[in-house]
Design a protein that fits this description.
The complex is a heterodimer of chains A (225) and B (327). Chain A is mainly alpha-helical. Chain A contains 11 helices and no strands. Chain A is globular. Chain B has 2 domains: 203 residues, Rossmann fold (3-Layer(aba) Sandwich), CATH 3.40.50.300; 116 residues, Beta Barrel (OB fold (Dihydrolipoamide Acetyltransferase, E2P)). Chain B starts with a strand and ends with a strand. In chain B, helix 4 packs across helix 5 and helix 5 packs parallel to helix 6. Helices cover 24% and strands 35% of the residues of chain B. Chain B has a 6-stranded mixed β-sheet with strand order 5-6-7-3-8-9, with helices on both faces. In chain B, strands 12-11-10-13-19 form a 5-stranded antiparallel β-sheet, with no helix packed on it. The radius of gyration of chain B is 23 Å and the shape is globular. At the A-B interface, helix 6 and helix 7 of A face strand 5 of B.
Chain lengths: 225, 327
């Protein structure tokens, strides 16, 4: 019965359900893009350069991967809350606040997985590129292109961590209706209120988004290979 | 760039504090085919990477800086790395660094693929090629950019006879353009057929060869023997068997015996010469004789003393026709 009601909510294109789903998706995509660029750079740097303190950074990144979302939420909260150092920017309980938190959440995952992916590439690849005089951005592009499956998996893992998190969205977004309410904060709220239909509908949409994104990327990689 | 020689001097390289290469002095002429031979772990790949500028020497020099060598040389690995995408993409990408117009580029792509017998696979994904086809594509990709020095790490490893012969042919054709090719291989016959110079490595050090090695051509003598004439036509030697494609003669040092006067012997080759150098080698002597060409013979100390051999001694160099191996 609950499932039927949940499906009705989805297929009747309920405005609030669509808004919440789109908010979740757009925030997750934005956060992934924001974290992806520095994470790609750091992951690449760690995999191709030898420097002092590299092991410490790797251990730190791996530790951050396991950090609970509420801890990250709390740390960012203390920085962007009215009394914090960035309080003047009024980022708390806005989508920007969520994007900052989620970006920090996905950054170590993407960076760490990029590092692992690029550490596994055959040494003949950079040597072949060097041999043909390919350097700089072109070399970086080819390395990413050649390990695109692993790179996309890393980015997807970061996206997956974000789209399913509650702590950051709740603490930094405030779960404000028609503004910062996301799929996961809705599930938490509606479940606590005993409104399982909406919670289940949101859960189903979350599964659908996750499956769709993975399938599209998989097909994209396959056709390009 | 010095067109004459790459001079390797006091060259050392280590992996994880273990010496893998130690070459005091080696001169490699440019514009010819040089082959490195040696067992696995003898330092061939490391040396090739140093010559292509992919590795920097820890001590000593390889003639030019790594940056200069990287611009002049292209290396093809033993297990070549092919980019994801089509056969054409692989060559097109290699050419994309050059300022080549699209028409000219298309022509180069078709020419090198035709040489490698891959033209019919131009749109095939590189990942679906067979082992031999992958080797040929990697070679075609390197040839396409027409490097001053082409470096090939074991180009005949794990490929079928057809690919082997095709690759030999491509390397041979390139030699006619006056560009340098440096390669490593375990295939002695390929090395003898292709090389202008062969360098033997063992545990990172250069080993002296134990054979004489000449380039030349063959002429049929009679039903039993053929005549091998060295390129400078300075000497003709008799051998057995006949194949018009033979270009190299090899005579092992131990297959040569010396006499101080002309002797009646079943050996078909008897050349008069003068001893130009003598070097003790373990319990024997390596004697170099100039008889139109320089030949080395390995003889015992007893024989040296018996015939009082020294630099300047007149001797006859004797060897059987069957001791001359042709490639």
């Amino acid at each position: 019965m609950v499932l039927l009601k949940a499906l009705t909510l989805i297929f009747s294109a309920d405005r609030e359900v669509i808004f919440i789903a789109m908010t979740s998706l757009s925030l997750a995509v934005a956060s992934t893009i924001v974290s992806m660029i520095p994470a790609l750079l750091l992951g690449t740097l760690l995999s191709i350069k030898k420097f002092r303190g590299k092991s410490i950074i790797i251990v730190f990144l791996n530790s951050l991967m396991a950090l609970p979302t509420v801890v990250i939420g709390l740390m960012i909260y203390s920085i962007i809350s009215r009394s914090g150092p960035l309080g003047g920017l009024r980022l708390l309980f806005t989508p920007w606040g969520i994007i900052i938190g989620q970006s920090i959440l996905s950054f170590p995952i993407i960076a760490s997985l990029i590092y692992s992916a690029l550490s596994d590439i055959r040494p003949e690849l950079p040597e072949t590129l060097n041999s043909f005089g390919v350097t700089g951005i072109r070399k970086l592009y080819m390395i990413f292109r050649e390990s695109r499956t692993a790179v996309l998996s890393a980015i997807l893992s970061g996206f997956g961590r974000i789209i399913g998190e509650v702590g950051v969205s709740m603490m930094l977004g405030g779960n404000i209706r028609w503004y910062t309410r996301t799929i996961t904060t809705t599930i938490a709220l509606e479940t606590s209120r005993g409104e399982f239909e909406l919670a289940l509908a949101m859960g189903l949409i979350l599964i659908f988004i996750s499956l769709s994104v993975n399938t599209l990327l998989h097909l994209g990689v396959k056709s390009h290979g | 760039m010095d067109r004459e020689k790459l001079i390797l001097s006091k060259l050392k390289f280590k992996y994880d504090k273990t010496d893998v290469l130690s070459i005091d002095h080696l001169e490699l002429a440019t514009g010819v085919i040089t082959v490195f031979m040696g067992s696995n772990g003898s330092g061939k790949t490391t040396l090739l990477k140093l010559l292509s500028g992919l590795l920097k020497p820890e001590e000593g020099t390889v003639g030019f800086s790594s940056e200069v060598l990287r611009k002049r040389a292209v290396m093809v690995h033993q297990v070549p790395y092919l980019f994801a995408g089509s056969v054409k993409y692989n060559i097109n990408f290699a050419l994309s660094g050059n300022k080549t117009g699209s028409k000219k580029r298309e022509k180069i792509i078709r020419t090198v693929l035709d040489q490698a017998d891959l033209l019919h696979l131009i749109n095939r994904k590189s990942s679906t090629l067979s082992g031999g086809e992958k080797h040929r594509l990697a070679l075609a990709r390197a040839i396409a950019v027409d490097p001053e020095i082409l470096i090939l790490d074991e180009p005949f490893a794990h490929i079928d006879t057809r690919s082997h012969l095709l690759i030999e042919k491509i390397i041979g054709n390139r030699a006619t353009t006056g560009k340098s090719t440096i390669l490593s291989t375990h295939s002695l016959s390929s090395a003898f057929r292709l090389a202008d110079k062969i360098v033997h490595l063992d545990k990172g050090e250069i080993l002296d060869p134990n054979y004489n090695f000449f380039k030349g051509f063959v002429k049929k003598q009679d039903d039993r023997f053929i005549c091998f004439i060295t390129d400078d036509k300075s000497i003709s030697i008799l051998s057995t068997g006949y194949n018009n494609d033979y270009r190299t003669a090899v005579i092992h040092y131990s297959d040569i015996f010396l006499s101080v006067e002309e002797i009646a012997t079943s050996a078909q080759n008897q050349l008069k010469g003068t001893v130009t150098a003598m070097k003790a080698k373990e319990d024997q002597f390596l004697v170099t004789i100039n008889c139109g060409i320089e030949l080395n013979a390995l003889i015992t100390e007893l024989s040296v003393n018996k015939f009082t051999l020294r630099t300047g001694s007149k001797v006859f160099v004797n060897f059987k026709a069957s001791a001359v191996r042709l490639y």
